[in-house]
Each structure stands twice: as C-alpha cells, then as structure tokens.
Amino acid sequence: MRSEKEEDRQEAPLTRIQVNGKEAVVPGPISVRGLLEHLDLQPELVVVERNREILSRDRYDRVDVEEGDRFELVHFVGGG
Amino acid sequence: MAAAEEQSDVGAPLRIADREFSSRLIVGTGKYPDNETMVEAIRASGAEMVTVAVRRVDLDRSKEEGVLHHLHPDEFFLLANTAGCYTADEAIRYARLARAAGFNEWIKLEVIGDEHTLLPDVHATLEAARVLVEEDFKVLAYTNDDLVTALRLEDVGCASVMPLASPIGSGLGLVNPYYIREIKRRLEVPVIVDAGVGTASDACATMEQGVDGVLMNTAIAAAKDPVQMAGAMRLAVRAGRAAYLAGRMPVREFAVPSSPERGMLD
Fold it and tell me: Which residues in chain B have Cβ-Cβ distances shorter than 8 Å to A47?
C-alpha cells in the first residue's frame, strides 16, 4: 500500500494500520481526520469504526491513528 | 373496519413512529443499471422513504461512489438497512454504524437465516430488535409472514413490522394473502409488506389486504424500464389502498346478473 510519494520521504515516521481489511501505511503521527484527508474521503459522508468502536465526527480531530489500529470506513450504498 | 373508517381517505399519510409519509410506497436504491436511472425511477415512484445499505468505502475507487452523491438526504428520508447480516450482533453493529452517519435513528432490521432463500432468522431478528429498541432506534423489522413472530416483534417495541410477500428479489408476488391479512388485523403498529413484489398487480393486491405500505427494490430496478415501472407501482399502491378502503364486493362461486332480469322481451 506504500505509495512512491511516501517512499521519497523515508525519514518521516510511518504508522502501520489496517483499513477495511487491508494493510495500510500512513505518514504519522496523524489524526483520524488526517487519515480521512490522506485517503481523500469526505468526513461527512463516512462513518469511522476504530478497533470496533464507532468514532463520532466530533472526535476525528482529537483521536490519533496509532500503530496497529484497525479501521472500518463505511458509507451508504444502494440497497433494498 | 374501524381502521378504514378512521382513515378512509386514500391520501391519508402513512404514519410510522413519530413521522408521516405522503407515500405508502417505500423503495430501495440497489441494483439499478446506473445512478441517473435510479434517481429518475425513485422520483417517478413518488416514494419519500428510500432504503440504503451500509458498506465499506471502496478505497481503490474502482466502483461507484456512495449513494449520497446521487440522492440528497433533504429530498428523501433515508432508511438504512442491515441487509447481508446473518447474526444479531452483526445487524446491531451495522445499525449503529448507520445511525452514526447522522441522518436519523431509523433502521430496517434484516437478519438473514438462509443463504439460498434469504429468509429471515426470526430468532436473531427478535434478539437484535430488543437491543436496538433499548438503544432508542426506530426499528422496522423485516420478517417472515408468521403471525407469532410479528406479534413478538411488536411486543419488543418495533415501530413497524415488515413481513415478506415472497423471498427477496424473487418477484413471486404475494404468496400468502391470508397470513398478511391476519398480521395486519392483529398488530397495532404499521405493517409494511417488504420483498417479493414483482409487478404492479402484486403491489396492488398486497395493498388490497389492508396493509399500511409496500417496500420494494428489484421489481423496479430490474424492470426493462425502471422509470416506467416506478410510475406503475405508484399507481398500483394507490389503487390497492383505495380498493381496500372502498371495501370489495363479496366473492361468490356463482354468477349474479348485473342487468335486470325483469323487462325482457317475450
């Protein structure tokens, strides 16, 4: 999951996490809002579950992404 | 017929929990050939409440984006579902995620018990309903056409009970009108028939049983012309409701002439 851009700046600390079942590496330290921005997601259209706990939107700035965190990022799709 | 007398107007709103809906038709947003057709069909259906599913965001962006890029929550009341869940715990998790999206606390509870028929696991549904009602969700519970389960779902505090007409996506229509009528007769909460409708006559026949509304997805989305079918469903649901309120003639297994028998020529 590591992009070329991230390889360029190897000095930067990296945080290894899992997002939607896949391994991911993000430049750390980073808040949950930072993670959503990093993934180019609109916070108002996504619900975040971190280590099986739902994070309310008002906590996105205050909660930091930590090594080994498991995130589920969900949204509404078409369904019956 | 007390209920019919109270609300003898075909235009009377559908009331569920603390809300009123102008349409008795609730539609899904899945399986449309494209998003433009989905939006056009939903508008043609006249539905105010639409169902949506909760799924992982596709981080590769290889698939279509979320449904809210196409449907505006100001225009439609969003009813999130727990479709695809096979246990009570899973359904509860999906319901909580749906509520955290921030639109409302309503959930279409669906716990599937069998992969082949997609028939509901009524025990798990009851278990999840109990927990979600406790957490102040407005629970609209998808269930079998079984009276006892419907009564139990009402007992635990569901805002609506939603028995199937026939299996999800089957288009088999209303297979057990007697059980649906009996559920409607015995429950106080609104009864919405969810799943199985295939075409307009099914929707009409379902509404003729006296139920409060119909929920469908595939019947519209999988029609050759979904927009046209959505319009047909809108008319069918209204026609069925009007026919129910009008009170049908008794069925007789013999003919009764409509024209006078007297006054015939020699």
Answer: 54, 97-98, 100-101
- Count CB atoms within 10 A of the CB of residue B132: 26
Q: State how far the Cα of B217 lies from the Cα of B197, in Å rounded to an integer.
A: 9
Torsion sign across C-alpha atoms B42, B91, B137, B167 = positive
**DSSP sequence for B134-198:** HTT-EEEEEE-S-HHHHHHHHHTT-SEEEE-SSSTT-----S-HHHHHHHHHH-SS-BEEES---
Written as six digits, the tokens of A40 are 């180019």
β A53-55/B160-163 pair status: unpaired
- Residue A75 to residue B57, Cβ atoms within 8 A: yes
Q: What phi and psi values does residue B171 have, to the nearest 5 degrees?
A: 65, 20
pLDDT digits 0-9 by tens, B164-209: 999 999 999 999 999 999 999 999 999 999 999 999 999 999 999 9
CA distance B25 to B161: 15
> For this structure, is B224 an active site residue?
no
Amino acid making up residue B193:
V
ipTM: 0.89
Nearest to B237 by CA among B210, B264, B266, B255: B210
Q: ω into residue A29 within 30 of 0, thus cis? A: yes
- Please, what are the domains in chain B? 21-246 (3.20.20.70)
Interface check A42 vs B, CB under 8 A: no
Q: Count CB-CB contacts under 10 A for residue B131.
A: 17
pTM equals 0.90
Contacts for B178 with CB less than 8 Å, ≥ 6 apart: none
Beta bridge partners of B56: A74
Tokens 């000095």 -> residue: A11
Q: If we measure between CA atoms, which residue out of B91, B245, B185, B183 comes closest to residue B193?
A: B183
